[in-house]
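dumping the sequnces here before i forget
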Amino acid sequence: MTMTQERDALLRPHAEQAFAAELTALAAADDRPRPPSWKLSPWAVVTYLLGGTLPDGTVITPKYVGPRRLMEVAVATLATDRALLLIGVPGTAKTWVSEHLSAAVAGHSTLLVQGTSGTAEEAIRYGWNYARLLAEGPSEAALVPSPIMTAMRTGSIARLEELTRIPSDVQDALITVLSEKTLPVPELGTEVQAAKGFNVIATANDRDRGVNELSSALRRRFNTVVLPLPADEDEEVSIVARRVEQLGAALELPAVPAAAEEIRRVVRVFRELRSGITEDGRTKLKSPSGTLSTAEAISVITNGMALAAHFGDGVLRPGDIAGAVLGAVVKDPVADQVVWTEYLEAVVRQRAEWADFYRACREVNG
Ligand SMILES: Nc1ncnc2c1ncn2[C@@H]1O[C@H](COP(=O)(O)OP(=O)(O)OP(=O)(O)O)[C@@H](O)[C@H]1O
Ligand SMILES: [Mg+2]
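..and the predicted 3d for all of it:
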């Protein structure tokens, strides 16, 4: 198999695989100074994220849709001795941006620590191959480096997902790494000093704040970039449309014409329920308990496309999305059901051009 065939067989290629051609074209066109170990200049990294056209005509697709300045601050931070912390409400592309940033800066996005309440210090520092440790005692060969240690050795980017979910004593292990740029290995009487180019991109969810508040000592090691919700309906619609198209292609769903109208409807429903007020500002609404972010809108539409492709007539219809919308909105079967039914009757039903959607929702609304 060629590399392209191998990549195309993957369910979800990494950013550096999916966009290898763009990254190569950018590197070739990029004559600006690159920080030590960087694969691209900061300018080229921002172009990779936001899209553009290179002098030779190569089109770079936008990955992130939002304020350019935020991406410039994020990229500039990675060239300093401060680490980058992306925060925001769920579904604001924190993980997505972290992956693409790492791919563009370091050429890979895979030195990843997934933060959970069970994340142990070994995941941040290093662990041991116990068979070797018992047989030979502590040695370089018995040491199992964490992704962060590997990034330090290679002058590269490590990613830390959901930083605030990690217990605070484990978070503290990061302080030495980020301030001294060294990771002591007392068992071997050695240390790993970070090579130039090392940095960390962490993400944290707004809603988790307080679960394990970042200590101020750790917070000071990060520059924080807050990723906002899409500015308006049009922006959110264009984000959803683009991602749905990419996902549909990656999943090799039979082509279903991108149904602009259904996308706009789902985005409108989610925005209204999220903000607790209708688009025209006239009707106050209760918000459901779960998150109704851009990410949920993307998966509702993708679901609908699979239904339409395999069980429908190949056109995305309200009936294909009603069930998924219900599933996304009603997380708590009692309270959310009330919220959703009120919305259906007070808002959806009143919109003449939404009659077919109203009917489809009533049908699945148990
Ligand atoms: N502004 C945006 N530009 C491009 N894509 C976006 C944007 N906002 C959301 N998305 C899309 O939404 C999806 C979800 O994003 P992601 O998983 O990165 O969210 P997150 O902020 O990490 O959420 P969580 O807090 O739940 O971890 C991705 O497919 C991403 O492409
Ligand atoms: Mg995330």
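The chain has a mean pLDDT of 93.
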